[in-house]
Predict the structure.
Amino acid sequence: MHFKKSAAFVVAAAAVATGAAIAPAAAQNNGVCTTSVSSNLFGELCLYYNSGLSGSHADFNVPTRDHAGYVFSSSGAGKGLAVKNNAASATNLDTECTASVYYNSGWSGPADYIPARSSVSRFTNVYNENASNHWECP
């Protein structure tokens, strides 16, 4: 499984480096947070509108260069609102990789890191200032 993630990550990184668009996986931001996805990319990163892993959430299973255009899609406070600069907490459902949520688009600036199978009840560095997400794998 680690090989599949590495290969998928290399393809995604190459597409980003060449400016090619990355089509979102079918399960991306469908309002359901899952541990694994059929594409074998990453277990999902769920960004929550409120602290304490509450309110509506948005789910991501690929590195996302810019949260612009995404909305919180599940039921709860914040449903339908923009994800960019509105996330307060997160859960990383990947089984191996650390998720990172960045202050700036393009995976730069201050970040909060969520180890595999862990949650952050309230962001420290990107509280309501999130713009992109990525994963770092062993």
Observations:
- Confidence is low (pLDDT under 50) at residues 6-26.
- The domain at 2-136 is CATH 2.60.20.10 (Gamma-B Crystallin; domain 1).
- Residues 2-18 form the longest helix (17 residues).
- Helices lie at 2-18.
